[in-house]
């Protein structure tokens, strides 16, 4: 992976002013967070676009990639005007305009408050290996950008939200998309991986049954081995099979009628909805789910076509997920947010765009107020106050700021948020998520 260096020049820009508080809601009721990670670095500049006079600056900077102003889907933010969404995102547009979702502008990993002059002069520490896919995925999922990431803020939050000995605790972090850092705890918790298709590994095994496969598995599990490694393997296998049986039984008791798109992300979020519907059987009060969509690394692709396909899949899946939560009566208990490696720079490299930094992300549900634009949208002037060079936006909202507000909604107290987000106190609060 090529490492890109910060580029030159421009006047200093102030970090956004301190933000108003999110009202903390805690208590015994169920709450879940869903992270939808967009692997590859989604181009936020073509996802959320100004439709006022700033559109001309946007069009001049990327004439071959700019979306026509009249093709953008208008958003009726309660606290801002002059914005539209990518034309493939009609489902998300409807959610925002109905008050169920909002956008966070120009968010990204930071270690401490940083001005343009600070970044260009290297007067403050910058995220480790900035512009590297792997390292910035880690920085975003961990909210710890100063070095290689080892655990994620979702996992750290769950470690403190559920006691180590509680029943079914292993199902509090469920991944619908393989391994991920966001759900990895800093103590003992690790994500439990579930197939979006609903298959649970040894689903052919029925304890007590006499069919040959069940009998063979039962015989194997009751063996005692003298070799400690063989015995450990049998013990782990037995626990895994039992865990799968518990989860499969819970999911099979949860049904939803909402139609989901037959896409990879659609099936992931459908399984997440079924698992949320099974919460009563599992007895959990706090859960985190991880889903993902890849393919956003649009250096030399036909970015317009590729992003049209991907953002359409994202929008349709999220709209169906919200409808399923309404069906389940859980729309106020589940918060969803998007995240990505980084943004992409404003000018085109010919057919696509290159790695950048600040990006725009969606926040939906959880009873959080919708129809808002949080944070400060960057100036779209090349060489302007927010441009570190070649249209790379210096984030004006830190990843930790959004994480803290979601953690407070999740029920975390001040001590927990300080432990999960050790740099957050330096940044202030994110306005309006109350």
Descriptive report:
The protein is of the alpha/beta class and 434 residues long. It has a single domain (31-193, 253-426), classed as Alkaline Phosphatase, subunit A, CATH 3.40.720. It contains twelve helices and twelve strands. The strands form two sheets. Strands 1, 5, 6, 7, 8, 9, 10, 11 and 12 form a nine-stranded mixed beta sheet that branches. A hairpin with an 8-residue loop joins strand 3 and strand 4 (83-85). Helix 2 packs across helix 10 (303-328) and helix 5 (153-161) packs antiparallel against helix 12. Residues 1-28 have low confidence and may be disordered.
How big a fraction of the residues is strand? 5-15%
Count up the helices. 12
Termini gap: 40 Å
Domain count: 1
| Class from helix and strand fractions | alpha/beta
- Overall helicity: 25-40%
**What integer value in Å does the Rg equal?**
22 Å
Q: Compute the average pLDDT.
A: 88
**Order of helices and strands, N to C?**
EEHEEHEHHHEEHHHHEHEEEEHH
Assign the CATH topology.
Alkaline Phosphatase, subunit A
Low-confidence stretches: 1-28
In one word, what is the shape? globular
The CATH top-level class label: Alpha Beta
CATH architecture identity: 3-Layer(aba) Sandwich
Number of strands: 12
Largest sheet: 9 strands, mixed
